[in-house]
Amino acid sequence: MERGKMAEAESLETAAEHERILREIESTDTACIGPTLRSVYDGEEHGRFMEKLETRIRNHDREIEKMCNFHYQGFVDSITELLKVRGEAQKLKNQVTDTNRKLQHEGKELVIAMEELKQCRLQQRNISATVDKLMLCLPVLEMYSKLRDQMKTKRHYPALKTLEHLEHTYLPQVSHYRFCKVMVDNIPKLREEIKDVSMSDLKDFLESIRKHSDKIGETAMKQAQQQRNLDNIVLQQPRIGSKRKSKKDAYTIFDTEIESTSPKSEQDSGILDVEDEEDDEEVPGAQDLVDFSPVYRCLHIYSVLGARETFENYYRKQRRKQARLVLQPPSNMHETLDGYRKYFNQIVGFFVVEDHILHTTQGLVNRAYIDELWEMALSKTIAALRTHSSYCSDPNLVLDLKNLIVLFADTLQVYGFPVNQLFDMLLEIRDQYSETLLKKWAGIFRNILDSDNYSPIPVTSEEMYKKVVGQFPFQDTELEKQPFPKKFPFSEFVPKVYNQIKEFIYACLKFSEDLHLSSTEVDDMIRKSTNLLLTRTLSNSLQNVIKRKNIGLTELVQIIINTTHLEKSCKYLEEFITNITNVLPETVHTTKLYGTTTFKDARHAAEEEIYTNLNQKIDQFLQLADYDWMTGDLGNKASDYLVDLIAFLRSTFAVFTHLPGKVAQTACMSACKHLATSLMQLLLEAEVRQLTLGALQQFNLDVRECEQFARSGPVPGFQEDTLQLAFIDLRQLLDLFIQWDWSTYLADYGQPNCKYLRVNPVTALTLLEKISREMKDTSRKNNMFAQFRKNERDKQKLIDTVAKQLRGLISSHHS
């Protein structure tokens, strides 16, 4: 059952496949039927396929037969009608042949007459053609004659136009004549002659503009300067009356616009007419100094000759060479401002000419070419200015150079050239200008400080008082109430330095003019430069004065007073800068002046120098000390050297009345401490191996003199007994030995409230050993062959015992 179903399914599939192949054979081109038949033979049922194919063929034959039977009667009717028409057509042909024969016989005379007429017309046409040819040749000859005349009179552009008309309009009409061939052969020679003459004119033009570049640039910069002055006048004065005319452009309107292909006349040179300015004297423009007509003519000629590109390349190549020559600065340019001015004039003149050519010709130079030249010029100019300006040490020359560069940039900016890099370079020169200013002001400050007498300024009249107050902001109601003559607390270098700082600020402000900087940028620049002036230049000048070897205490005291007043004046300098820049100090990015720090540092250096100077003076007095450490006499007065030293200190501290209290107190305390330390070293120095109690008593008198000086209050402001503490170490040491209070010292040692708290065991032992050596030496001399007396032996034992205990304290302290 299943096998029967499978066989039935396979037969259905085979039938369907055969049906598909038959449809494909019916619908496929005969040339492409091979693959289809191959698929039949590849199968196993090709016998059955052949049966189906024959069945299909029989079906198609039956359909063809039916169709032929249907159309047979119409075909028979058409053949019958065609046979009838053939007879009628033969009759028509016979009639036409007969009519033609009659017509040929009747028209024979007319044909003869027409042939005669044809010959007449041919002769007439030949005559007319001859006249026309002659009419064509006459203009050619006239044009050629005109061409020769134009060549003789050197009117080359019209000659070129005539030649063009002759070649393209007239000669082609008569080109087959022999005389025309002669003309045609001569045309290239005429063109070359015109090209050579125009090129010679161009070379003369290039030489002319090379010579006149300096003058052209000078003229353009004068025009820019006049325009800037006019703008400044307009900004400063209210506009009243009639409106003034101003220049519309750096190079103004053209009288006639130059067409590159058809100039109006031979003399048309494209020269610009400068409009009258408001000035009575008109400044000539580039077109008034150079005749541009040769370049226009040469451009037109080469354009007509089809060699415009050659001309453009030659012109640009030559101008590039000239540009490189112009941009090469002279080696000594930095020596004078005229060197820079000539250099700038040549550059401006070059680009004014190129800009004029750009706007008066169509494509001889384009914006890309101009920009390329300008980029090269800008880079070389900036490099040259950086190199040469670095040699300049005169701030006035740097300032003049800056103004010249600004004018140079403004002039070229009017012509559309970007000059931002020049202004960026001016910011670099600004730093150099600041450095030259700082060097100049270093010399000014040095001269002021060297020439100052370091004494308060005396005034004897109200006029002198107001003059000083006008130079330096100072207010003191007590000084104003005092009668004349009176003195300012500061010396002359204070108002001089203050005014020089203001002059420096003005100098910085001058450089910032016309740099297109905002008020904030100008303010920041001035403040930074002023900070450098204060923190570096003025600070170094003050430090050099303070560190001089021959500087005295009086001068140092005056320097402290002067720097104190200069420090107070810093707020007025802040206000001064704010007034000239209109930038409030509360602005976020405003730089603060560091003058306060500068003057504080200088004052601190002067204070340290005072302390050092005082100590050196004390050391000089101590070198005069001549103690007899072996004396047995008890003195009743202090040593002479110490009395002189105390007198010096009193007179010195009397000068300190104008100093701030803290400075005077510090100086006094420092001097007392140094004196106490030096006296201690004098007492304990290793060279003094022995000393007597009598010498110790004399030393005690000197220390009492020092303590009396400290109690007298040489400088006000000390609390009670504060200054005496400088000598406390000496006082306790001397009391211990003079009172011979060793029991108290040894018993209370280490206690916070002990009587001899400031006595170091090492110091006490050193001094005790010196006294012990002296006692032993004296006993040996007095009792060379006898035993020591009992009290001397007891005292020596006591000294040995104390020394032993002191060594024990020292060793226990170290452990």
Chain-wise SSE layout:
Layout: H1 2-27, H2 34-42, H3 46-106, H4 108-152, H5 156-170, H6 178-236, H7 286-289, H8 293-304, H9 308-326, H10 337-360, H11 367-389, H12 395-414, H13 420-451, E1 458-459, H14 462-471, H15 477-481, E2 486-487, H16 493-512, H17 519-546, H18 553-568, H19 570-581, H20 595-622, H21 640-655, H22 661-684, H23 693-711, H24 728-739, H25 742-748, H26 761-782, H27 790-814
Helix pairs in contact: 1-3, 4-5, 5-6, 5-8, 6-8, 6-10, 6-12, 8-9, 10-11, 10-12, 11-13, 12-13, 13-16, 13-17, 16-17, 16-19, 17-20, 18-20, 20-22, 21-23, 22-23, 23-24, 26-27
What does this structure look like?
Helices cover 73% and strands 0% of the residues. The chain is an all-alpha fold and 815 residues long. Among the domains are: 216-229 and 287-417; 434-608, Tetracycline Repressor, domain 2, CATH 1.10.357.30; 610-814, Dsl1p vesicle tethering complex, Tip20p subunit, domain D (Methane Monooxygenase Hydroxylase, Chain G, domain 1). It has a two-stranded antiparallel ribbon. The protein is elongated and about 200 Å long.
N- to C-terminal distance: 128 Å
Average pLDDT for all residues? 79
Number of helical runs? 27
Within the largest sheet, what's the order of strands? 1-2
The fraction of residues assigned to DSSP E strands is: under 5%
What coarse outline follows from CA principal-axis ratios?
A: elongated
- What is the CATH architecture assignment of the domain at 610-814? Up-down Bundle
Number of strands: 2
Judged by helices, strands and strand pairing, the structural class is: mainly alpha
Helical proportion?
over 70%
